[in-house]
Amino acid sequence: MLDLALARDAARAHVPAIIAAADRAGNAATKYVLPFVLGEIGGEEAITRLEHDLASPAVDVRAVIASLEMLADDAAPAADALRKVAEQHHVADVRERAARAYARITGEGIPARRPRCPREVKRLSDGWLVQLSTMSVRFAPTDWKAHDRKKDRRDRRSAAGRCAPLIDDDEGIYIAHPLGADCLVGINMGEFGGGVSIQNPRSDKRELLFGGNPKRFVDEGDGSVLVFEGLVHMTVVSGSVRRVRRQPNGKWVAERVAELEAHPLGWARDGEGRLLVLAREELPLTREQRTTCRADHPSYVVLRVWPDGRIEALE
C-alpha cells in the first residue's frame, strides 16, 4: 500500500502533462481513458479537471462520475458540480450515478427526480412512432435494418447515391453521402472505433473530420449534413449529433450539435424546427425507471436539442 501511495504521489507531478497528451490525442483518449487515469492518480489538479469535465461534451460523463466516486471525500471540491448533474441532467441513469457519487462524497442524499418517459413507443417499418403526453411524434430512423443484412446493405448503398461504390463492409466503410464534388464517408467498426472523413471518390485518400461511430447521414438541404453517431458496448453508452458544413474558405468542418449521453434511434423536428431525438438510455434501468415507466419501453427518452446546445428530456 505504501508503494502504491508513493507511486500516486509521484504521478501527480505529471498530471498536467498527462492531461495535455490526452487532449492532443483526442477522441477515446480524452473521452474515456483520461477520466479513469485521473481517478486513479487523484490530487487537486486531477479533481479540478474532473470537475470541469462533468460539463464537457468531449468527455464521457459516466466515466467522470465513476472516478469522482472512487476518490470519495477527496473529491469534495467537485461536490457542487456533481449535485448539479444529479438534479439537472437529461438522462436518468446519469442523474442516479451522480446522486450516488454525491452521497458517497458528502454523506448527503439527493431526492430522485422522476424520469421523463414516453407514453408509448412503437417500432415501424420506416422509423418510430412515439406518444408523448402532449403530442405524437413520428421519427425517421438513425439506424438501419441490421437484422436483414442484404436489405441493410442495399438501403445504405441507395442512400449513398453516387458515393455508393465507396461503401465496403469488409473495411468498415458503413455509410457515404455526396458532399459537393466529394463524398462524406462514415467508418463504423463498433467498439474498435471509426470516424467520419471527406474523400474524393476518385482517390483513396481521406481527410478525417472526427472520430466516432457514425450511424446515419441526414442531408439538411442547405449544403450541410447532420451526422448521428453512437455506440453501445458493455459499459459504454454514447451518442452525439454533429453537423458537417463548408466554411467560406472552402474547408469542411464538423460542428458538435449535441452530446446525447444516450444512443440515438430516431430523429424528427418539432413545430419550430428544433431537433428531436429518440434515444435509448443505458441498461440496467434506474430504480425510478423501473417504478415509473412502462415495462415495455422504460429506457427510451425523447430529447429536444435547443439551438444553443441545451438538451431537454420530454415526456
Strand residue percentage: 25-35%
Share of helix among residues?
Answer: 25-40%
Number of helices: 9
Structural class determined from secondary elements: alpha+beta
Q: Give the integer mean of the pLDDT values.
A: 87
Number of β-strand runs: 15
Shape: globular
Query: Which blocks of ≥5 consecutive residues have pLDDT under 50?
Result: 1-5
For the report, how would you describe the main beta sheet?
A: 7 strands, antiparallel
* Number of self-contained structural domains: 2
- Report the span from N to C terminus: 49 Å
Provide the gyration radius in Å. Answer: 21 Å
Secondary-structure element series? HHHHHHHEEEHEEEEEEEEEEHEE
The order of strands across the largest sheet is 1-2-3-12-13-14-15
Describe the structure in your own words.
The radius of gyration is 21 Å and the shape is globular. The chain is built from 9 helices and 15 strands. The strands form 3 sheets. The chain has a 7-stranded antiparallel sheet, with no helix packed on it. It has 315 residues and is an alpha+beta fold.
